[in-house]
């Protein structure tokens, strides 16, 4: 990821806040002091403080400099969920933007895919042409049901780089992440079984539960710490849970990242109650700072964790290519995969093989992460200046999305009508649960290119709601 000059002092301030050495209200060094200590220009120091303000870590006081911002623990209020199994049935959706997911030439802020300008189009198309020339008619034949051997070897090798042991012969190559989830669930559950799932939870995952006839217990994700692990333990103690479905790295929609300690605790609960974990890692490569986060799979010594991911979020949505590390459930997973479609597109597999065998994919990831972080900061700042102080949001550490909460006094219908009028679309919160817990919330995606038109529209929407 690109390193900015101001990182020499912003990293220290962030670390101090994270470790509790700097408390809310503490006065921070002046621009002049930072400039002298680190030999930076005034503009670099100002940009650094602007960055910290955007992250919600620092507050600017007129004519008084900068202080550590008030605790962000209360940025998004906790949600009360009843720990009872529910049938996987959606309530009727009436909000205007819930039907705005069809293909459109106009990018919007409710579609969790990379914008066209963030896709390395020349690289992908050039690689595709090379594959066609080199492989010829072989691309028109079936590939192995569980995917190319070389591709599975490459995926296993990449996982080892961040401490996750995956065997190539346990991998099933899939048509994207959602198919991988379907295969994982179909391999270890039966209709009527109860699964524990994080809440809020992206609606596509909820649809898979519904299609498999599963019942769910929703486990709240609380800001800023993530999944309520004590709540999960109680759920597993009270019910016969057949699977825990969780996104530990940059949860969709909140963008929250679990610590290694939290991942270990979740795994320990799974071991205690002998419950398989289905781990969604589609955003694991899209971190904004530091190193690539670990997986729950890296703690697994009992074969309880099934991990899945996809290249569709990191490279291009049309490149339908995902994978499932099924572990001891591989034989069942392979049979389920065969029953829903024998072979994933050979050309997509060969394109990915070629990219992974070079440095081009990792170069793309570095650029993409930097752009996502910039977009995220820009969107947060626009919300903060456009909406009232009662408007709350999360501060993601990676991934694609922000989770936003409207003030309790907001006319939600007016909000979505204003969005419709302005041509800016967000995903309504009620699509992220089988309950009505998130009707005042919405998801905003920053993987789409933010234009001045988008930002001005958000400002106008904020004025209507004030």
UniProtKB/TrEMBL annotation:
Signal sequence, renumbered to the chain: none
Family, as annotated: In the C-terminal section; belongs to the class-I pyridoxal-phosphate-dependent aminotransferase family.
GO molecular function, one term: DNA-binding transcription factor activity
Protein name (record): GntR family transcriptional regulator
Source organism per UniProt: Myroides marinus
PROSITE patterns documented for this protein: HTH_GNTR
Origin superkingdom: Bacteria
Keyword Transcription annotated: yes
Keywords on record: DNA-binding, Pyridoxal phosphate, Transcription, Transcription regulation
Domain HTH gntR-type: 3-71
């Amino acid at each position: 990821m690109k390193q900015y000059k101001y990182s020499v002092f912003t990293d220290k301030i962030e670390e101090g806040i994270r470790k509790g050495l700097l408390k809310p209200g503490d006065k921070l060094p002046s621009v002049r002091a930072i400039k002298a200590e680190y030999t930076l220009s005034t503009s670099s120091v100002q940009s650094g403080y602007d960055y910290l303000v955007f992250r919600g870590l620092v507050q600017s006081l007129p004519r008084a400099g900068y202080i550590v911002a008030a605790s962000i623990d209360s940025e998004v209020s906790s949600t009360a969920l009843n720990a009872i199994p529910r049938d996987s049935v959606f309530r009727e959706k009436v909000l205007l933007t819930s039907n705005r997911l069809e293909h459109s030439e106009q990018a919007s802020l409710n579609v969790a895919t990379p914008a066209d300008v963030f896709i390395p189009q020349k690289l992908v198309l050039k690689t595709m042409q090379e594959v066609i020339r080199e492989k010829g008619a072989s691309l028109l034949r079936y590939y192995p049901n569980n995917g190319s051997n070389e591709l599975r070897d490459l995926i296993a090798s990449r996982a080892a780089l961040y401490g996750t042991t995956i065997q190539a012969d346990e991998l099933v190559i899939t048509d994207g992440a959602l198919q991988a989830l379907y295969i994982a669930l179909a391999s270890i559950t039966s209709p009527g079984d109860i699964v524990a799932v994080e809440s809020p939870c992206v609606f596509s995952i909820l649809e898979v539960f519904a299609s498999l006839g599963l019942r769910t217990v929703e486990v709240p994700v609380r800001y800023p710490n993530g999944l309520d692990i004590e709540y999960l333990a109680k759920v597993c103690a009270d019910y016969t849970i057949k699977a825990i479905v969780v996104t530990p790295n940059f949860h969709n929609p909140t963008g929250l990242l679990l610590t290694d300690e939290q991942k270990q605790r979740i795994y320990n609960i799974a071991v205690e109650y002998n419950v398989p974990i289905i781990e969604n890692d589609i955003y694991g490569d899209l971190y904004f700072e530091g190193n690539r986060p670990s997986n729950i799979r890296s703690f697994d010594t009992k074969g309880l964790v099934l991990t899945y991911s996809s290249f569709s979020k990191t490279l291009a949505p049309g490149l339908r290519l995902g994978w499932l590390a099924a572990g001891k459930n591989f034989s069942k997973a392979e049979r389920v995969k065969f029953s829903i479609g024998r072979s994933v597109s050979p050309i997509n597999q060969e394109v990915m093989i070629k990219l992974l065998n070079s440095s081009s994919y990792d170069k793309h990831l570095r650029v993409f992460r930097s752009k996502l972080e910039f977009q995220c900061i820009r969107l947060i700042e626009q919300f903060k200046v456009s909406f009232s102080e009662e408007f709350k949001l999360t501060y993601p550490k990676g991934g694609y999305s922000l989770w936003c909460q409207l003030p309790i006094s907001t006319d939600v219908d007016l909000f979505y009508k204003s969005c419709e009028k302005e041509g800016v679309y967000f995903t309504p919160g009620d699509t992220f649960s089988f309950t009505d817990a998130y009707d005042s919330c919405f998801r905003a995606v920053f993987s789409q290119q933010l234009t001045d038109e988008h930002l001005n529209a958000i400002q106008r929407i904020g004025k209507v709601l004030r």
